[in-house]
Design a protein that fits this description.
523 residues, alpha+beta, two-stranded antiparallel ribbon, 11 strands, binds adenosine monophosphate, binds magnesium ion
């Protein structure tokens, strides 16, 4: 019998919508609406993350029960669960979109584990809420597999992220027009249980500011501070202005660290709307995300973004800053002068620059960046792009280059085709010579350099085609590959002999296949 202790502070300390249930509506003067998950026909657990179950003190024996599948499909509530959808707004693709809210995500409550940590449970795809607008509140299996796997892969890569406890098939079909081309089809449905200390987004603040509800905006900020940033709440207990200023700077700093990690591992979020930005600086809302295969700063995995490429890989640091500016704009009414907010945004730039610099140095095996290094690194990235080189494969190969006798040999596997490899070989060799000189000047022993690089450069990332293979198999009734990938992604920096297949560059068949190179928001 599942036994979790709940303490639902978001619900108990912030005002809610007086109406319960899923009737679609605009919700004013409230941070949440009570709504129950809509039960599904035949819940079946396809996968779970044991590490996340452990965070919640859920024993293995309980995971194996039908009760577990029912609870995490939304068919059954445990004592202490009090389900609600949060009200938030957001800027989508650069434009204010008004009220959005949890349209298909339903929070079950806040678990307090034996260690005293607070973990909020949220079902995605659990049925419509007041914020569902015209949509069905459901999620398809393919996008649920992607969210489940990527949340955990990111965690094991050391990237701040929401977690995923479970992936449950619903036994129901969901109608989706994957390409928005007028050809909808039925697909299997699923529910993922996401887990995070908080699911508050920039958009929770923006919606209140957009409605001029400064009093509730202040309450939400103070609630967030007290629950999710207790160190700051305590340190600046006597001064509300300083407390809020320090908090905003902290949000900026955490966001900067998160995006620096994305850039390090080659992750492209794909929909960096402000409703998809966590106030804790966690990667949230895994939709049409992607992983850079052949290095290209202009690549976006999201077909909806193909035109403007707002959310392309190389633009993410700027977009995060823009999103923080939206948050600052929303918070402005709480500050007598704009300086603290401006200083917070400045912190974003400082922290991003420092963090990314340190990560870039580690990727190339340098102890620290010197002033001439920027050019050397920029040249490498330029070459990677021109010669169509796999980003992940390149950095793992680079660690194997012998700096006493540098050659292209350890990098060959990372090239996508022979012609550009031959054309750019002299340029690469020239670069490698200068790179090796630079490393010799630093005098770090080869094994130490390799260890440093292999700790910053994953061997295994959840390449889009790998996730798609797992999806294809699962749709045919075999969820085994999901578990296999989950296990591979558990140790992304280790060599894992025998699992070379999962470290290979994207195969040619996947180059233009849906789900592998292009993804839509239809999920
Ligand atoms: P996203 O692009 O996934 O961040 O979603 C943007 C907004 O649309 C959020 O308010 C979601 O809750 C809502 N939404 C997306 N898909 C659905 C769906 N199938 N049913 C209800 N709401 C949805
Ligand atoms: Mg979203």
């Amino acid at each position: 019998m599942l036994n979790l202790r709940f303490d639902n502070r978001y619900l108990n300390e912030l005002p809610g919508d007086p109406e319960a249930g899923p009737r679609r509506r605009q919700v004013h003067g409230a941070c949440w609406s009570r709504v129950r998950p809509t039960p599904v026909a035949a819940p079946r657990l396809l996968a779970h993350a044991p590490e996340v179950a452990a965070l919640l003190d859920i024993p293995d024996a309980d995971v194996a029960t039908q009760e577990f599948a029912e609870v995490f499909a939304g068919n059954r509530l445990l004592p202490g669960m009090d389900p609600y959808a949060a009200c938030y707004g957001g800027h989508q693709f650069g434009n204010w979109a008004g009220q959005l809210g949890d349209g298909r995500a339903i929070n079950l409550g806040e678990v307090v584990n034996r260690a005293g940590q607070r973990w909020e449970l949220q079902l995605k795809g659990a049925g419509p809420t007041p914020y569902a607008r015209r949509a069905d509140g459901r999620a398809v299996l393919r996008s649920s597999i992607r969210e489940f796997l990527c949340s955990e892969a990111m965690h094991h890569l050391g990237v701040p992220t929401t977690r995923a406890l479970s992936l449950v098939a619903t036994g129901e079909e969901v109608l989706r027009d994957m390409f928005y081309d007028g050809n909808p089809r039925y697909e299997p449905g699923a529910v993922v249980c996401r887990v995070a200390p908080s699911f508050i987004r920039f958009g929770n603040f923006e919606i209140l500011a957009s409605r001029g509800d400064t009093a509730l905006l202040g309450r939400l900020v103070d609630f967030t501070l007290a629950r999710d940033f207790p160190e700051i709440a305590v340190e600046f207990a006597g001064d509300a202005q300083q407390r809020r200023a320090r908090w905003f700077a902290e949000v900026c700093e955490r966001t900067a660290r998160m995006v620096a990690h994305w850039m390090r591992v080659g992750f492209v979020h794909g929909v960096m709307n402000t409703d998809n930005m966590s106030i804790l600086g966690l990667t949230i809302d895994y939709g049409p995300y992607g992983w850079v295969d052949d290095y290209d700063p202009d690549w976006t995995p999201n077909t909806t973004d193909a035109e403007g490429r707002r959310y392309r890989y190389g633009h993410q640091p700027q977009v995060a800053h823009w999103n923080l500016s939206c948050l600052a704009g929303a918070l402005a009414a709480l500050f007598p002068t704009p300086e603290p907010l401006e200083q917070g945004l400045e912190r974003y730039i400082e922290v991003y620059t420092t963090e990314y610099g340190a990560m870039a140095a580690a990727k190339f095996g340098l102890g620290r960046l010197e002033k001439d290094d920027a050019g050397l690194l920029a040249e490498a990235f330029e070459l990677l792009q021109r010669a169509q080189v796999d980003m992940t494969g390149f950095f793992r190969g680079l660690a194997e280059v012998d700096i006493e006798a540098p050659s292209l040999a350890p990098l060959r596997e990372a090239f996508y085709s022979a012609e550009p490899m031959h054309r750019y070989a002299p340029a690469f060799e020239n670069w490698l010579t200068r790179y090796a000189e630079r490393l010799r000047r630093e005098g770090v022993p080869q094994p130490e350099r390799r260890a440093r690089m292999n700790a910053a450069n994953p061997r295994f990332v959840l390449r889009n085609y790998l996730a798609q293979e797992a999806i294809d198999l699962a749709e045919q009734g075999d969820p085994g590959r999901i578990l296999e990938l989950l296990d591979v992604m558990r140790r992304p920096y280790d060599a894992q002999p025998g699992r070379e297949r999962y470290a290979e560059r994207r195969p040619d068949w996947a180059r233009h296949r849906a789900g592998c190179s292009m993804l839509s928001c239809s999920s």
